[in-house]
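Predict the 3D structure for this chain.
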Amino acid sequence: MLYHRLSVDCKVAVSNYTELEAGHVEINPIILAECKDIINKFCKEELEGGFDKGGVMDCLVSHKNDPEVRSDGYRCRAAVEHFQLISLKSYHFSYKFKEACRPHVVRYCPKSKTKMDVVSCLSEKVRNETLSGQRPSISRECRQQLRAQLLQRHESINLDPSLKAVCFSDVRSLCVNVKPGDGQVLECLQNARHQLSAECHRAIFNVEREELTDNSVDYMLLTACSKPLKQYCPQVDLSKALECLK
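Done. Predicted structure below.
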């Protein structure tokens, strides 16, 4: 990607347009062209009167791993994942996350530059308050969006550049035949925790701590246990999914 090599003025122009695209999929020609059928099938409710209010991209992300999208909508899936990678540059490129969490970012994470930094900062704040029994200072809407961002990050190591960097050698030596996505690389690293480098081991421990603190961000658990969760835990907050399934 060329973004980091652009002039300041050009970066501002690109950022403004990308932020607009994130909230209005109807002006994103690639997503609109490649995902038209998927949008019509799964995300019609998010298009109010033909206009996106920031929900279509989230809807596409939530359905990108559905069997139907994998088989017939692979070009749409590729386009969505490309936009997910672009959105790592700034939390402003994730419309609903930005709208729900902006006040908290300004207050608690003013030095965070990328979306990854913002997610890490806010999730640490939420986790510390949860573990200490403090009253949440992060709004419910922001916490919901934060969960969605963490779930995406745990689904694909490509959406967690920091983890990918510190575990690069470990992935090459231990998970070389594992394809990114569906939480597979993360699962591979977790299964090989006793063989990991010290730095990668610490990073994986942090991921596991996030998942144990809030089960709703554990992609593999929610995917593997989706049917039992729907059958036996329909009223249970997914953050406590593991407790319900035991």
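The first strand starts at residue 47 and ends at 48.
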